[in-house]
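Attaching the record inline, Q. Sequence:
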Amino acid sequence: MEWTETLRSAIDYMEQHIREPITAEEVAAHVYMSPFYLQKGFEIVTGYSISRYLRCRRLYLAALDLVLDRGRVIDIAYRYGFETPESFTKAFVRFHGATPTQIKKEHKRLKPFFPLKVMISVQGGESLEYTVEHKEKFTVIGFGRDVPFESGYREIPEFWEEFDRQYCTPIFSGKEPQTPEKKAFLAHGIGEFGVCVDEERTPGMFRYLIAGSYRGGPIPEGMELFEFPAMDWAVFPCRGPLPGTLQAINTKVFQEWLPGNTEYRIAMGANIEWYSDEGKTDSDGYRAAIWVPVEKL
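Structure, as predicted:
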């Protein structure tokens, strides 16, 4: 399914099941896409996470039901998936800026939130540079963490800061690595990759690894392996200070490259950030790239 049509189908499905306790995983299964890529792309293109979109739509529809006198507050709260009238009122006030009772009396205070319409926007500027490269099966090793889709842009940089303080700073300052983890850090070049993997561990989360290329040997406690099969990858290079340049390329992949792409589709729920070991990450000439697994349509 073409990317723009995938988003439209996902929105249609959410609208059809708006009163049901659907999850992003169910929406992704309906459009035959990994939850990782659907949630990531949906937020980049629309500005809303799937859970936030559903919440906003439900609160708007709940307000309409109140205005049209379609039940008591408690009935409407349960109708749109809230466990208690208190949790409903709290979310309602946060969204509309007024209580359910106030909205019933002052209809103009209702905050509209209509279904999103997805359209392709063709814009000028430079085309997105990329190559498609075949890579044989390879394994990465690193430190993993489950990350919520909604807070990934905040939590992943924090994860890297912790990693830098614990491993990069001491070792690059000249201290001899003593622990198995620090020895593995050097042996496998950990920090070359940031790996996002859509694994069925916890709903609403994906696995993120700060990783390097596994070259054999023991796996220290607290570290893990992930094997990628042989496949094609779309490689999007970028040059400039991080994280801004990578985030900009990531946005272009979903807003410009995927819409209308008639040659490739995403092959699995994963992507890799590649970081060079040349220069500082905040320099204008720093090299990095995003790898997206793809297959021919």
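The mean pLDDT is 90. The chain has two domains: 3-109, 131-296.

More tomorrow.
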